[in-house]
Design goal:
It is a single chain. The protein has 279 residues and is of the alpha/beta class. The chain has seven helices and eleven strands. Strands 3-4-2-1-5-6-7-11-8 form a nine-stranded mixed sheet, sandwiched between helices. β9 and β10 form a beta hairpin. α2 crosses α5 and α3 runs parallel beside α4. The longest helix has 22 residues.
Length: 279
Protein backbone atom coordinates (compact mmCIF):
# COMPACT_ATOMS: atom_id res chain seq x y z
CA UNK A 1 0.00 0.00 0.00
CA UNK A 2 1.43 3.41 -0.95
CA UNK A 3 2.44 5.57 2.02
CA UNK A 4 -0.22 8.20 1.32
CA UNK A 5 -3.02 5.62 1.09
CA UNK A 6 -1.76 3.94 4.25
CA UNK A 7 -1.79 7.28 6.12
CA UNK A 8 -5.34 8.02 4.94
CA UNK A 9 -6.50 4.58 6.05
CA UNK A 10 -4.87 5.08 9.45
CA UNK A 11 -6.53 8.48 9.93
CA UNK A 12 -9.90 7.01 8.95
CA UNK A 13 -9.47 4.17 11.45
CA UNK A 14 -8.49 6.61 14.21
CA UNK A 15 -11.48 8.82 13.41
CA UNK A 16 -13.85 5.84 13.55
CA UNK A 17 -12.33 4.72 16.84
CA UNK A 18 -12.68 8.20 18.33
CA UNK A 19 -16.28 8.44 17.11
CA UNK A 20 -17.13 5.09 18.63
CA UNK A 21 -15.48 6.05 21.92
CA UNK A 22 -17.43 9.31 22.01
CA UNK A 23 -20.66 7.43 21.34
CA UNK A 24 -19.94 5.03 24.20
CA UNK A 25 -18.93 7.79 26.63
CA UNK A 26 -21.43 8.78 29.27
CA UNK A 27 -22.32 12.47 29.18
CA UNK A 28 -20.44 14.74 31.59
CA UNK A 29 -22.73 16.75 33.89
CA UNK A 30 -21.73 19.49 36.34
CA UNK A 31 -24.16 20.02 39.23
CA UNK A 32 -24.31 23.09 41.45
CA UNK A 33 -26.88 25.06 43.44
CA UNK A 34 -27.29 28.02 45.79
CA UNK A 35 -28.76 26.26 48.84
CA UNK A 36 -25.46 24.61 49.75
CA UNK A 37 -23.84 21.31 48.85
CA UNK A 38 -25.78 19.30 51.46
CA UNK A 39 -29.22 20.65 50.44
CA UNK A 40 -31.93 18.04 49.91
CA UNK A 41 -32.79 19.37 46.45
CA UNK A 42 -29.24 18.91 45.18
CA UNK A 43 -29.05 15.40 46.61
CA UNK A 44 -32.31 14.45 44.87
CA UNK A 45 -31.09 15.96 41.60
CA UNK A 46 -27.81 14.05 41.84
CA UNK A 47 -29.61 10.73 42.28
CA UNK A 48 -31.52 11.21 39.01
CA UNK A 49 -28.74 12.84 37.01
CA UNK A 50 -26.36 10.00 37.89
CA UNK A 51 -28.65 7.75 35.82
CA UNK A 52 -28.04 10.02 32.83
CA UNK A 53 -24.32 10.73 32.98
CA UNK A 54 -21.17 11.14 35.05
CA UNK A 55 -21.92 13.89 37.57
CA UNK A 56 -19.40 16.20 39.21
CA UNK A 57 -20.66 18.42 42.03
CA UNK A 58 -19.22 21.90 42.61
CA UNK A 59 -21.48 23.73 45.03
CA UNK A 60 -21.33 26.36 47.77
CA UNK A 61 -20.29 25.22 51.22
CA UNK A 62 -23.21 27.11 52.76
CA UNK A 63 -26.54 28.61 51.69
CA UNK A 64 -26.11 31.41 49.14
CA UNK A 65 -29.74 32.09 48.27
CA UNK A 66 -30.59 35.47 46.79
CA UNK A 67 -27.08 36.43 45.71
CA UNK A 68 -28.05 36.56 42.03
CA UNK A 69 -25.04 36.49 39.73
CA UNK A 70 -22.70 37.80 42.39
CA UNK A 71 -19.10 36.59 42.32
CA UNK A 72 -16.51 35.88 44.97
CA UNK A 73 -13.26 37.70 44.22
CA UNK A 74 -11.86 39.76 47.12
CA UNK A 75 -11.23 36.85 49.48
CA UNK A 76 -9.58 33.44 49.13
CA UNK A 77 -11.88 30.77 47.70
CA UNK A 78 -11.54 27.82 50.04
CA UNK A 79 -12.26 24.48 48.37
CA UNK A 80 -12.35 20.97 49.79
CA UNK A 81 -13.04 17.72 47.98
CA UNK A 82 -15.45 15.63 50.02
CA UNK A 83 -16.88 12.15 49.88
CA UNK A 84 -20.10 11.90 47.82
CA UNK A 85 -23.14 12.68 49.92
CA UNK A 86 -25.27 10.35 47.79
CA UNK A 87 -24.56 6.72 46.98
CA UNK A 88 -25.78 5.42 43.61
CA UNK A 89 -25.07 2.45 41.39
CA UNK A 90 -23.33 4.75 38.90
CA UNK A 91 -19.63 5.60 39.15
CA UNK A 92 -19.17 8.35 41.73
CA UNK A 93 -17.95 11.70 40.45
CA UNK A 94 -15.98 14.21 42.49
CA UNK A 95 -17.69 16.49 45.00
CA UNK A 96 -16.22 19.94 45.61
CA UNK A 97 -17.34 21.96 48.63
CA UNK A 98 -16.52 25.58 47.80
CA UNK A 99 -16.72 28.67 50.00
CA UNK A 100 -18.01 30.92 47.22
CA UNK A 101 -21.09 32.21 45.49
CA UNK A 102 -22.89 29.87 43.04
CA UNK A 103 -21.68 31.55 39.84
CA UNK A 104 -18.12 31.41 41.11
CA UNK A 105 -18.47 27.72 41.97
CA UNK A 106 -19.41 27.01 38.37
CA UNK A 107 -16.70 29.29 36.94
CA UNK A 108 -14.03 27.68 39.15
CA UNK A 109 -15.16 24.22 38.05
CA UNK A 110 -15.19 25.12 34.36
CA UNK A 111 -11.85 26.90 34.39
CA UNK A 112 -9.85 24.85 36.90
CA UNK A 113 -11.42 21.83 38.57
CA UNK A 114 -12.73 19.90 35.56
CA UNK A 115 -10.34 18.22 33.17
CA UNK A 116 -12.93 18.26 30.36
CA UNK A 117 -15.75 20.56 29.36
CA UNK A 118 -19.13 19.29 30.63
CA UNK A 119 -21.92 18.46 28.22
CA UNK A 120 -24.51 19.96 30.58
CA UNK A 121 -24.61 22.12 33.70
CA UNK A 122 -27.51 21.81 36.14
CA UNK A 123 -28.21 24.12 39.07
CA UNK A 124 -30.67 23.06 41.77
CA UNK A 125 -33.08 21.83 42.79
CA UNK A 126 -33.64 25.05 44.70
CA UNK A 127 -35.92 25.21 47.74
CA UNK A 128 -38.48 27.75 46.55
CA UNK A 129 -39.47 28.66 43.03
CA UNK A 130 -37.55 31.12 40.88
CA UNK A 131 -40.38 32.36 38.69
CA UNK A 132 -41.27 35.83 37.51
CA UNK A 133 -38.75 38.58 38.16
CA UNK A 134 -37.00 36.56 40.86
CA UNK A 135 -34.73 35.26 38.09
CA UNK A 136 -32.69 38.45 38.60
CA UNK A 137 -31.87 37.74 42.24
CA UNK A 138 -31.60 33.95 42.16
CA UNK A 139 -28.24 32.34 42.84
CA UNK A 140 -29.64 29.20 41.23
CA UNK A 141 -30.05 31.10 37.96
CA UNK A 142 -26.63 32.73 38.41
CA UNK A 143 -24.91 29.34 38.46
CA UNK A 144 -26.71 28.14 35.34
CA UNK A 145 -26.21 31.44 33.51
CA UNK A 146 -22.47 31.24 34.14
CA UNK A 147 -22.38 28.06 32.05
CA UNK A 148 -24.57 29.60 29.35
CA UNK A 149 -21.98 32.39 29.01
CA UNK A 150 -19.67 29.71 27.59
CA UNK A 151 -22.33 28.20 25.35
CA UNK A 152 -22.76 25.14 27.57
CA UNK A 153 -26.34 23.84 27.84
CA UNK A 154 -27.65 24.73 31.28
CA UNK A 155 -30.74 24.07 33.38
CA UNK A 156 -31.78 25.92 36.53
CA UNK A 157 -34.32 23.93 38.54
CA UNK A 158 -36.42 25.15 41.48
CA UNK A 159 -39.39 23.82 43.42
CA UNK A 160 -42.16 25.76 45.13
CA UNK A 161 -42.11 25.53 48.92
CA UNK A 162 -44.44 23.09 50.67
CA UNK A 163 -44.46 21.50 54.14
CA UNK A 164 -43.31 18.16 52.71
CA UNK A 165 -40.74 19.34 50.14
CA UNK A 166 -40.68 15.98 48.37
CA UNK A 167 -38.12 16.56 45.65
CA UNK A 168 -38.38 13.10 44.08
CA UNK A 169 -41.06 13.77 41.41
CA UNK A 170 -39.39 17.00 40.33
CA UNK A 171 -35.97 15.35 40.29
CA UNK A 172 -37.34 12.55 38.11
CA UNK A 173 -38.61 15.16 35.62
CA UNK A 174 -35.26 16.96 35.77
CA UNK A 175 -33.48 13.72 34.91
CA UNK A 176 -35.74 13.16 31.90
CA UNK A 177 -35.26 16.74 30.74
CA UNK A 178 -31.48 16.48 31.10
CA UNK A 179 -31.47 13.28 29.05
CA UNK A 180 -33.59 14.96 26.36
CA UNK A 181 -31.34 18.03 26.21
CA UNK A 182 -28.29 15.81 25.81
CA UNK A 183 -29.99 13.61 23.21
CA UNK A 184 -30.91 16.66 21.14
CA UNK A 185 -27.39 18.06 21.35
CA UNK A 186 -28.18 20.87 23.77
CA UNK A 187 -30.12 24.10 23.49
CA UNK A 188 -29.49 27.18 21.32
CA UNK A 189 -26.17 28.77 22.26
CA UNK A 190 -26.58 31.42 24.94
CA UNK A 191 -29.87 29.93 26.17
CA UNK A 192 -30.59 28.35 29.54
CA UNK A 193 -33.73 26.60 30.71
CA UNK A 194 -35.44 27.88 33.85
CA UNK A 195 -37.50 25.02 35.31
CA UNK A 196 -40.00 25.63 38.10
CA UNK A 197 -41.66 22.65 39.76
CA UNK A 198 -44.98 22.91 41.64
CA UNK A 199 -45.22 22.08 45.31
CA UNK A 200 -47.66 19.19 44.97
CA UNK A 201 -48.72 16.70 42.32
CA UNK A 202 -47.35 17.43 38.85
CA UNK A 203 -50.23 17.73 36.40
CA UNK A 204 -48.08 18.24 33.32
CA UNK A 205 -45.56 20.56 31.71
CA UNK A 206 -46.06 24.06 30.30
CA UNK A 207 -43.55 25.84 28.06
CA UNK A 208 -44.25 29.43 29.05
CA UNK A 209 -42.62 32.86 29.27
CA UNK A 210 -41.54 34.30 32.57
CA UNK A 211 -44.08 36.53 34.28
CA UNK A 212 -43.26 40.21 34.62
CA UNK A 213 -44.29 39.87 38.23
CA UNK A 214 -42.23 40.46 41.31
CA UNK A 215 -42.84 39.04 44.74
CA UNK A 216 -43.45 41.40 47.63
CA UNK A 217 -40.72 42.38 50.05
CA UNK A 218 -41.84 43.94 53.31
CA UNK A 219 -39.63 44.83 56.25
CA UNK A 220 -40.66 44.35 59.84
CA UNK A 221 -39.22 46.94 62.16
CA UNK A 222 -37.82 45.37 65.32
CA UNK A 223 -35.80 46.47 68.33
CA UNK A 224 -32.92 44.43 69.69
CA UNK A 225 -32.30 43.80 73.41
CA UNK A 226 -29.72 46.60 73.15
CA UNK A 227 -32.47 48.95 71.93
CA UNK A 228 -31.07 49.06 68.42
CA UNK A 229 -33.49 49.23 65.50
CA UNK A 230 -33.23 46.54 62.84
CA UNK A 231 -35.43 45.25 60.03
CA UNK A 232 -36.41 41.69 59.15
CA UNK A 233 -37.21 40.88 55.53
CA UNK A 234 -40.55 39.17 54.87
CA UNK A 235 -40.93 37.71 51.38
CA UNK A 236 -44.18 36.83 49.60
CA UNK A 237 -43.98 34.80 46.38
CA UNK A 238 -45.43 36.32 43.18
CA UNK A 239 -48.85 35.09 42.08
CA UNK A 240 -50.75 34.99 38.78
CA UNK A 241 -54.14 33.65 37.71
CA UNK A 242 -53.62 32.21 34.22
CA UNK A 243 -51.53 29.36 32.87
CA UNK A 244 -49.67 31.49 30.34
CA UNK A 245 -46.66 32.40 32.52
CA UNK A 246 -44.29 30.50 34.79
CA UNK A 247 -45.87 31.93 37.94
CA UNK A 248 -49.38 30.90 36.92
CA UNK A 249 -48.35 27.47 35.63
CA UNK A 250 -46.68 26.32 38.84
CA UNK A 251 -49.56 27.78 40.85
CA UNK A 252 -51.89 25.41 38.99
CA UNK A 253 -49.69 22.35 39.45
CA UNK A 254 -47.65 22.35 36.24
CA UNK A 255 -43.92 22.29 35.72
CA UNK A 256 -43.01 25.56 34.01
CA UNK A 257 -40.11 25.49 31.54
CA UNK A 258 -38.93 28.92 30.40
CA UNK A 259 -36.03 29.45 27.97
CA UNK A 260 -33.95 32.48 28.94
CA UNK A 261 -31.34 34.29 26.87
CA UNK A 262 -27.98 35.57 28.04
CA UNK A 263 -28.24 38.44 25.55
CA UNK A 264 -30.61 40.93 27.17
CA UNK A 265 -30.07 43.67 24.58
CA UNK A 266 -33.27 45.51 23.67
CA UNK A 267 -32.84 45.70 19.89
CA UNK A 268 -35.95 47.86 19.51
CA UNK A 269 -34.56 50.43 21.92
CA UNK A 270 -31.27 50.42 20.01
CA UNK A 271 -33.02 51.82 16.96
CA UNK A 272 -34.89 54.39 19.03
CA UNK A 273 -31.71 55.55 20.75
CA UNK A 274 -29.92 55.86 17.42
CA UNK A 275 -32.57 58.39 16.42
CA UNK A 276 -31.70 60.53 19.45
CA UNK A 277 -28.43 61.49 17.74
CA UNK A 278 -26.54 61.49 21.03
CA UNK A 279 -23.24 63.40 21.02
Amino acid sequence: MPARAWACALLAALWLAATAAAADRRPRILLSNDDGIAAAGLLAAYTELARVGDVTVAAPAENQSGVGHGITYVEPIMMREIEPLVKTDAPAGKWYRIAAKPATCVRLALSTLLSERPDLVVSGINRGDNAGLTVYVSGTLGAAREAAFDGIPAIAASQAVSPEMDYRPGAAFLGRLAADVLKRGGVPRGTLLNVNIPSGEIKGVKIVPGALTAGVNTYERRVSPRHETYFWNVWTEPTAEGLDTDVGAIGHGYVAVTPLRVDETDTGALKELEAWDLK
